[in-house]
Amino acid sequence: MTDRGPLPLAQLGWTDGAPIAEHFGDIYFNPDDGVAETRHVFLDGTNLPARWEGNRIATVGELGFGTGLNFLATWALWEQARSPRAHLHYVSIEGCPLTPEQLSIAHKAFPEFAHRTAQLREAYPPRARGHHLIRLSQHVTLRLLFGDAAEMLKGLEARIETWFLDGFAPSKNPEVWSSEVMAQLARCSAEGARLATFTVAGDVRRALSEHGFEVEKSLGFGQKREMLKARFVGEPAIDPAPWFHLPLCRPGRRVAVIGGGIAGASCAQALHRYGCSVTVFDQGSRLGSGASGAPSGLVLPRLSAEPDAPARFNAAAFHMAVRAYQAEGVLSRGGGLRLASGLDKIGRLERTATSGLFDADDLELLEDGDASDKAGCNVTSPALFFANAGQLRSSDYLKAAIADIAFHFDTAIAGLERDEDDEMWRLIKSDGDVIGPFDTVILACGVAAATLFPHAEWPIEARHGQLTKIETAVSLALPVSFGGYAAPTEGGTWIGATHTPIDRNADPGFDPHADEDNLARLANALPELRKSAKIIDRWFGIRATTPDQLPIVGPITDAESFRQAFAPLVNGQTHGLAPAPVAPGLFVVSALGSRGFVSGPLLGEVIAAYVLGTPLPIDREARQAIHPARFTIRRLKRGDS
């Protein structure tokens, strides 16, 4: 994906209370009766709600979110017609998002949706490129993809059952109606997917037909004589990377999560909200007994040199974490500073500020003097200020996440067992007792995941992370990240953390050298704090990491079976290969490293999408960047055994 740079601002004019996009010279909705037109063209045009009957999951995709009118009408209809435990997943792409203030004016034209428009504006994401997942009710999830339509569709992984094509007119905005876009619509379409649009332009009809849609004209709305309906009758697209192929989802919903830290709690919460019966097993005696029990949870994004797949993942994770923690009331939002560090100094901060992956209104690039003013003490380098950053009360979040979920403490799981007769999983406790059956098992237990499924051969590394609490004469005003970090808290400031490699089976206790290491990093970044620092407490945890500093998330594969299936990669062959062999219903979320509090909520949604077969909340390249089999594939492509 190459789309980058700040999103364009929507320049609006107004006619009869309806917005006009001045750049395109086109209206967002019919000023006479926009709601009626939406119902006629898109809802009636795709035979909704009849096609929802009996569905537990419904997926709708849209080009052109605009004011959200089509979504609001669909949401209202869904709540009237859905089955009791059904869930709507609505995916919409928008290249030029309106601001909440612009939405507020436009929404006055839809008084019948007043309570829903207020909810939408309250939850509306920042103006940042990429995927934004928003839960608007117990039964409705909105995924907003901000960016160029072709780029967003290339990265989308979904099986859309219903498409609404509502971009500006083809003569005004031809890029949205290109053959490339239609090809991506076909790739993301479920068998028999239905599509509707207001335009009957010949180029659009031909492009849809070329890519597997059966097209017909139908009666238009109002003064528009005709509209288009279509049905996807084409063949499923060939996956160019079958080693990362999405596995078929399983219909059962009884789920076991092994591990009760941030990874496990986030997975459990997401699946529980989608109607799964979830049970969490943790070997500890209390919540947050592992690395997730850190006394200070910093919510600041990890920065990358370029806006590549890891950068997009990290940005999406940050946005999701802020929304999730705000919703639970466990995030102290006062902003945070990321100092320039390393050889690149200011360059990485400047590239982040202009990448488009963060809302420009929430970022501020500061010289060291202004950064010092923000921090409340002397700062030795320029910094990037994130207005939405803050500190997490981790124990409060863990309690909220598993509040309605069965949780078993002091339960060490030593092995897994699959019964091929009933196609279910059992968990084997350390004392030999067997628990189960379960349709799905998720390994969210840090370094122990590698022990539970050693045949995967994940290069999970254990790191000893120690924090030091100090008392200082100068008070730090907000959290500061600088390679290490400093976070003000009640009674002092936590600084850290060390990243010392240790054996995966070690139980090291406190490191006598860690305080010195933490103070040395502090001296380079915040010398004023270091001068008066007095150690008053310390904490440590064991973190799981990987060589590429990205988590391991997705379906589990046996490395040897994988090598046999994709042996042709050694000779450069990439075509004609079958989808990856995976262990059915078995997934892993591990190696979250030092940014687990930031990535946890998004990774929970990623796992839920895998389990339930719903649209992925990250783009395809980002998903592949965190896929558990990536290390095996890299070795094969290099010709390593």
Per DSSP E runs of 2 or more residues, the count of β-strands stands at 32
Structural class: alpha/beta
Distance between the termini: 31 Å
What's the helical proportion of residues? 25-40%
Spans of 5+ residues with little confidence (pLDDT < 50)? none
Q: What is the strand content?
A: 25-35%
Overall body shape: globular
Helix count?
19
Q: What's the story with the biggest beta sheet?
A: 9 strands, mixed
Rg (CA only):
25 Å
Q: Mean of the pLDDT scores?
A: 93
Descriptive notes:
By secondary structure, this protein is an alpha/beta fold. Helices cover 28% and strands 27% of the residues. It is built from 19 helices and 32 strands. Strands 16, 17, 18, 25, 26, 27, 28, 29 and 30 form a 9-stranded mixed beta sheet that branches. Strand 27 and strand 28 form a beta hairpin. Helix 1 packs across helix 2, helix 5 (149-155) packs parallel to helix 6 (179-187) and helix 8 packs parallel to helix 17. It starts with 11 loop residues before the first strand and ends with a helix.
Explain the layout of strands and helices:
Blueprint: E1 12-15, E2 18-21, E3 26-27, H1 34-43, E4 57-63, H2 69-81, E5 87-94, H3 100-106, H4 114-123, E6 130-137, E7 140-146, H5 149-155, E8 160-165, H6 179-187, E9 189-197, H7 202-210, E10 213-219, E11 226-232, E12 254-258, H8 262-273, E13 277-281, E14 297-299, H9 309-328, E15 331-333, E16 336-339, H10 346-353, E17 363-366, H11 368-375, E18 383-386, E19 390-392, H12 394-401, E20 406-408, E21 413-419, E22 424-429, E23 434-438, E24 440-443, H13 448-452, E25 461-471, E26 480-481, E27 485-489, E28 492-496, E29 500-502, H14 514-525, H15 527-531, E30 534-545, E31 552-555, H16 559-565, E32 586-590, H17 596-612, H18 620-625, H19 630-638
Parallel strand pairs: 4-5, 4-8, 5-7, 8-9, 12-13, 12-24, 13-20, 16-26, 24-32
Antiparallel strand pairs: 1-2, 2-3, 6-7, 9-11, 10-11, 14-19, 15-19, 16-18, 17-18, 21-22, 22-23, 25-28, 25-29, 25-30, 26-27, 27-28, 31-32
